[in-house]
Amino acid sequence: MLEEENFTFDRDRYRIIAEHPCYSENARHRFGRMHLAVAPKCNIQCNFCVRDFACVNENRPGVTMEILTPAEALEKVRQALSDYPFIKVIGVAGPGDPLANEETFEALRLVRQEFPNITFCMSTNGLMLPEKLPELVKLGVATLTVTINAVDPEIQGQICEYVNYHGKIYRGVEGARIQIKNQLDGIEAAVREGIVIKVNTVLVPGINDGHVVEIAKAVREREVYIMNIRSLIPQGAFAHIRAPTPEERQATQDACEPYVRQMRHCRQCRADAYGYIDQDMSQMSEERRNLIKIQIREDLEKAKETLNKNGKEES
Ligand code: CLF
Ligand code: SF4
Questions:
Q1: If I label 237, which of 149, 158, 172, 270 is the partner at 20 to 30 A Cα–Cα?
Q2: Confidence (pTM)
Q3: Which atom of ligand 2 is nearest to the CA of 147?
């Protein structure tokens, strides 16, 4: 067992965090992630979300992308892991809510059969977390992001217009009660299963800005590993609300830091991003990607030569 501040992890979890570019700032320049855009549907309506685009609770707003079938996603993973061995995490982050799409589970099942040791990551609004958790555990999802924008239903009721729960629409505070309970119960159960949790929170001036510390306290009690406070991008029903300033966001992060570790290096990835989080290869030219492939091959060859040479010198 290895200890890190308030956490004790087995060797496996420790390695997963150390190689996760979002959970460990030191990992971001050495290891990459790949997102599979297999999950188009969502089961709630956040007021800052324009549903033609990717889920803004995790992704960059205003971005459309091609949806992959699970078989296409597997093919993409095969190619990427062979070309870019620094990719250590496969994630599903939209463009809708991963837990509201059966394709998420199918894609991860296919990938797991071929890559038994790759880290699986996912982001969700948490509505279906208690019910879907057994499937996530079975697939070996190791890291999970739950977006919590309020732990008070009166506040969450202003942020989310409705939730669609088991085919029934619950609006405002009524929907918020269901969602918050499922998020918190789901996190507790996931932590008991050894899943390492990140909480994302969208900072919405005038609505939840005075409340985010309460979220930090609530997630600390539930052993959440890290929190990522993101700035509102005014759009949709919240187009009239201003974005927080960088100083306001930083002050909120500082106020939450005593309760839960803060992620400050998020790059607001696309739901189809891959590569290092600072260098999205989905947006690169073929030529640039090829150069990176050649560089990786050369580095590997050099590493092998050095190992061989050292081996000979030692013997
Ligand atoms: Fe993807 Fe998110 Fe997993 Fe990372 S992203 S599902 S935890 S593997 Fe990372 Fe990208 Fe920020 Fe997300 S930098 S948007 S926090
Ligand atoms: Fe949009 Fe994501 Fe909210 Fe769903 S959970 S409504 S995709 S921001």
A1: 270
A2: 0.90
A3: 5
